[in-house]
Write a structure and sequence with these properties.
635 residues, alpha/beta, six-stranded parallel β-sheet, 22 helices, 23 strands
């Protein structure tokens, strides 16, 4: 009995010792964990200090980079102005009157030298090419991942009916922007961001935590926040979060305009947060009444006015909604909208899909902005592809208002300057002896601010002023039999004041939408000269209408027809017209290739070359019809 008790005591003692050892081990582990925790807390404090110092260093670095960029820009501008001064001096030196003066001065005491000098001065001299602004060299910053929309297509394969088709993705342009003097901070989803990003210098990707640091690098003139449902700002808009309030307070301190843009969702879901902004605009006209009622019920905070209310609907953005084609032919099928735009596509991939099919069958109720974007990309809408109808739809999509025009209205409403470059046109019109026909070609054109008419007809100026609208400045100059066509065009070019200069020929025919359609290319093409390499022609001797180079639409080419020339005035003046009568346009195109000036061929419509006979054209073009060309060319 005693032995059993002794053994039991020994067992209990062993268990007690084991428990004590485990307790001691646990105590050691706890001490070690507490030591590691204390060390982690110290490290966290040090890391917080490092982050603060890093933020300060990044701000100083951003400021230094901004100063460096400005210095680089100023240096590049000084170099450019120096080259311009040299070019002007060279231009003066090769001018005929300057060379005549030099010849007279050097030969005044030597008749032989004087005669030789005058003969040399009378010869045409090649004008020096004007200098071009070179891109400002930039230092490449280290790659930094930021939140924001990606704007390049990522999906190059489409599947229709179980068949996969490989596409060449549409390259979304990175610039330029319409108003480089204006900076906007924008919170938007990819679609809206793509519409706005070319209208100003646009800052995106900032979050509720880092906006003060990001926006301080380039303080914006405008904050525009869309009614987003995804991303770091979605919760802030839903709950009137502290981050949004801090952003708006930051803008108020700096006099930055604030705009809330309602594009989706119920008005009641966003009314409270929208009331914090200075201005409210909606993309949905049907919601204006609801917004008015919501604002009438609310009370602005102390010292605040009730937000203004306006419209900012979705509209086409010419930089991305345009008829520039994808590489290769269109998919030879009519697709439904669901087949064309599956739900997984990002917006850059949508821009690729827009250009892909032969036509798109859109169901009733399709959003008007979607139809306009499709039409602006040159894609026929309907079950039967029709190129002429597609061209009219493209024209109507642009005529309904671009995002640039909508941005003008927004900026004017909130009190910011909307100044931007225009596309006003000066027309040089060559009369070939039938002044009535000549004036009938130019009078209906839109966007013309000046007509320089080259005509020897009696009372040409009076008839031209009567035919043209009152706002058009009319100048008439007679031709000189001793001067070549190129020389006469140069004289007319010196009189032009429009941003663009068109050369039109009175022996041909032009539709009323000719200049409107042609000038549109400057909204999306990166060319300085636009014209037509694809066009209709009518040959009277055989009563045949032909189509030249039908595949040359919407592409960069070595040359376009001279009678369809539309060019930036400054560029055309830097090149000038060759002192020849025949083939002046061919010489001009060769000079463009030499100087690296881009030439773009637009659509085939709106112009007809009229000739009595042209065997080369008849043999090289596609026969369309025996009959007049106007029903085919004018739409």
């Amino acid at each position: 009995m005693a032995g059993e008790q002794l053994e039991s005591t020994r067992q209990a003692l062993r268990e007690a010792v084991a428990h004590a050892e485990r307790a001691a081990e646990l105590a050691r582990l706890l001490d070690a964990a507490q030591a590691r925790l204390a060390e982690a807390e110290r490290a966290a404090e040090e890391l917080g200090g490092v982050r603060e110092r890093l933020g300060e260093v990044e701000e100083r670095l951003a400021a230094a980079q901004e100063v460096e960029a400005k210095l680089r820009k100023d240096l590049a501008e000084q170099r450019y102005q120096t080259e311009v001064a040299r070019w002007k001096l060279s231009s003066v030196q090769v001018a005929r009157w300057s060379r005549l003066g030099d010849a007279i001065k050097t030969g005044k005491s030597n008749p032989v030298r004087l005669a030789r000098g005058l003969r040399g001065a009378a010869k045409p001299a090649k004008r020096p090419s004007a200098p071009r602004r070179q891109p400002v060299p930039q230092t490449k910053p280290e790659a930094r991942s930021v939140q924001g929309a990606a704007f390049q297509a990522t999906t190059s394969t489409r599947t229709v009916g179980g068949v996969s088709v490989k596409l060449k993705p549409f390259r979304v342009p990175t610039g330029p922007n319409t108003r480089p003097h204006l900076t906007a901070a924008v919170v938007a989803e990819p679609h809206a961001e793509a519409l706005l990003r070319y209208e100003w210098r646009q800052t995106t990707g900032f979050t509720p935590k880092d906006f003060a640091r990001v926006l301080a690098a380039e303080v914006p003139h405008l904050l525009l926040v869309e009614s987003v449902t995804e991303g770091p700002w979605a919760a802030e808009l839903k709950e009137r979060g502290e981050g949004l309030r801090a952003l708006l307070a930051w803008c108020a301190e700096r006099g930055i305009r604030t705009v809330f843009w309602h594009t989706r969702g119920q008005v009641g879901d966003f009314a409270a947060v929208a009331s914090l902004f200075e201005h409210i605009v909606t993309a949905l006209p049907s919601s204006v009444a609801a917004w008015g009622a919501a604002l009438a019920q609310g009370e602005p905070g102390p010292g605040r006015r009730e937000p203004s209310l306006g419209l900012l609907p979705f509209a086409i953005q010419p930089r991305v909604h345009n008829p520039l084609p994808l590489g290769g032919d269109r998919f030879d099928r009519v697709l439904t909208l669901d087949e064309l735009l599956p739900a997984h596509l990002s917006y850059p991939d949508v821009l690729t899909s827009y250009r892909w099919p032969k036509a798109v069958d859109c169901p009733p109720g399709t959003e008007p902005w979607r139809m306009a974007e499709l039409a602006a990309c040159g894609t026929p809408i309907g079950t039967e592809p029709d190129e002429r109808r597609a061209h009219v739809a493209l024209r109507q999509a642009y005529a309904s208002g671009t995002m640039t025009q909508k941005a003008d209205e927004l900026l004017e409403a909130i009190g910011l300057p909307s100044a931007r470059a225009t596309l006003n046109i000066s027309v040089i019109m060559i009369d070939r002896g039938d002044l009535d026909h000549t004036l009938a070609q130019v009078a209906p054109q839109k966007g013309v601010v000046q007509l320089v008419l080259l005509s020897d007809a009696e009372d040409a100026e009076k008839r031209a002023r009567a035919a043209m609208p009152d706002h058009v400045d009319v100048m008439v100059r007679g031709t000189d039999p001793e001067l070549s066509t190129g020389a006469v065009l140069n004289r007319a070019l010196d009189l032009c004041e429009g941003d663009l200069v068109a050369v039109m020929d009175g022996q041909d025919a032009y539709g009323e939408h000719y200049l409107t359609d042609l000038s549109r290319a400057f909204l999306f093409a990166t060319a300085d000269i636009v014209g037509k390499a694809a066009y209709f022609a009518h040959l009277r001797d055989v009563a045949a209408t032909v189509l030249r180079q039908p595949d040359a639409e919407y592409s960069y080419l070595p040359e376009v027809a001279g009678a369809t020339l539309l060019a930036r005035r400054t560029v055309l003046r830097s090149i000038g017209f060759a002192d020849v009568s025949e083939g002046w346009d061919e010489v001009l195109m060769r000079q463009c290739r030499t100087d690296g000036i881009k030439v773009f061929s637009a659509d085939r419509y709106g112009y007809v070359r009229l000739r009595d006979r042209d065997r080369w054209l008849l043999g090289s073009a596609l026969l369309v019809d025996y009959g007049p060309a106007e029903p085919h060319a004018f739409v």
